Amino acid sequence: MRLFIAIELPRSFKQELSRVQKEVKQLSCGGRFVPTDNFHITLHFIGESDDLAGTVAAMREACRGIRTFTLHLGKYDCFDKNGSKTSFLEMKGELDELDRLYESLQCALYDNGFSRERKRFRPHITLGRSVEHDELVTGELKQLSPNASMTVQGITLFESVRQDGKMVYNALHRERF
């Protein structure tokens, strides 16, 4: 199974992301855009694994002592890797608690036999991959003012599967704080 742990987003958050994504699509020259149902905040990509018991144990361990916290949509930006842009919205809000959760999860996963994430954690929601637009458009997109807030109350283990040529994320386990 192809697994990852993430923060699920409420419908209102996804609707605002969809609105912003529509503007990005209109100002870009193409790309592969994330379906609205697949929006999430990735905390850890596990990859291929059948160790559901170890994953759930790590999630339980990681959530101990974490309190609910609020996140808001931030500014538009993109990761640029070898000329290929991944468009995303940054997260704002109680990032200290989000960082605590992230570090707790990394330690708990490692203690349960999984590898630690190697890159620096930059909380975001991906809108699209291989999105093509120039720097002028990037500047214009950075002026967008998305408006959505949410209270994070737990984390979710997802399985990523391809169905009818599309990626579908199925929730396998939810762990609340």
Summarize the helices and strands and which ones pair or pack.
Layout: E1 2-7, H1 11-27, E2 32-33, E3 41-48, H2 52-63, E4 69-81, E5 84-93, H3 95-111, E6 124-129, H4 135-141, E7 149-152, E8 154-163, E9 166-176
Helix pairs in contact: 2-3
Description:
- The chain is of the alpha+beta class.
- It contains four helices and nine strands, in the order βαββαββαβαβββ.
- The strands form two sheets. Strands 2-6-5-4-7 form a five-stranded antiparallel beta sheet. A four-stranded antiparallel beta sheet has the order 3-1-8-9.
- Strand 8 and strand 9 (166-176) form a beta hairpin.
- Helix 2 packs antiparallel against helix 3.
- The radius of gyration is 16 Å and the shape is globular.
- 28% of the residues are buried.
Describe this protein with a few key phrases:
four-stranded antiparallel β-sheet
Entry summary:
The protein is an alpha+beta fold. The protein contains 4 helices and 9 strands; from the N terminus they run E-H-E-E-H-E-E-H-E-H-E-E-E. Helices cover 30% and strands 40% of the residues.
Q: What is the N-to-C succession of helices and strands? A: EHEEHEEHEHEEE
**Rg calculated over all Cα atoms:** 16 Å
Q: End-to-end distance, in Å?
A: 25 Å
Instruction: Work out the helix count.
Output: 4
Overall 3D geometry? globular
Average predicted confidence as pLDDT:
94
Give the class from helix and strand content and strand pairing. Answer: alpha+beta
User: What is the helical fraction, as a range of percent?
Assistant: 25-40%
